[in-house]
Amino acid sequence: MPTDRTQDRKVVNMTQFASSARFQPIKEVEAYWQAIRAGRLVPRRSDIDPRGIERALEFAFVAERIATGLGRLRIAGSHLTDLLGMEVRGMPLTAFFATNSRPVITDTLEQVFADPAMAEITLTGERGIGKPALDGRMILLPLKSDLGDISRVLGCLVTSGSVGRAPRRFEITDTRVTPLLGDARLPEPVTQDPAPRVPSGLAEAPATFDPGPRPYLRVVRREDAE
Questions:
Q1: Any long-range contacts for 184-192 (C-beta under 8 Å, 24+ apart)?
Q2: Are 106 and 100 in contact (CB under 8 A)?
Q3: What is the rounded average pLDDT of the residues 133-153?
Q4: pLDDT, tens only, 17-59
Q5: Alpha helices in 53-203 (DSSP H)
Q6: Which among 131, 188, 193 has a CA at the least distance from the CA of 162?
Q7: pTM (2 d.p.)
Q8: Phi, psi of 21, rounded to the nearest 5 degrees
């Protein structure tokens, strides 16, 4: 008698585990970003130590905002080079996306910089001759530059499947943007006694009231008054 193994609770679907393990670098990069964030709204670019994401380096990248919704890759892992089949440093982030998805990534990237926010993007590769099924995920995490403006992004792009013939570009199937405002832990306010007012150079010190000696009463007799 045939048995439907999908109904057997003892059967473990290893495909889900394989997929989860494949996209593990996304989680590692996000966890590292949260760690260096340390309760602040956004961490600085200079806070990043590549050793902190060593196992995810080939999928990681840093992009710089050069115009509204446009980011240029400053640093990129080897996996991104494999996807396009060329050196990608200096290229716009939109180079990884199909024409119809470029307005979406532009709007999403601008939200990451402007809100600021973190974004998680689900991707599917364009199909064609020598281009088999290829799924992907990307995360975008805002960073401050040395000047203090939010104009950098730490990202990670991971794919599942054979890369095939490059270049491989992606269509966006889902986007989740999470604003960060109000997410940072602010320090508790410290209350102090107000400092005494110090007169400015041209101001006079306030005058004080001196009550003087305590008054007394003296009885005056009629004959003394005459």
A1: 184/37, 184/39, 184/40, 184/41, 185/39
A2: no
A3: 97
A4: 455 688 999 999 999 999 999 999 999 999 999 999 999 999 9
A5: 78-84, 102-114
A6: 131
A7: 0.74
A8: -65, -35
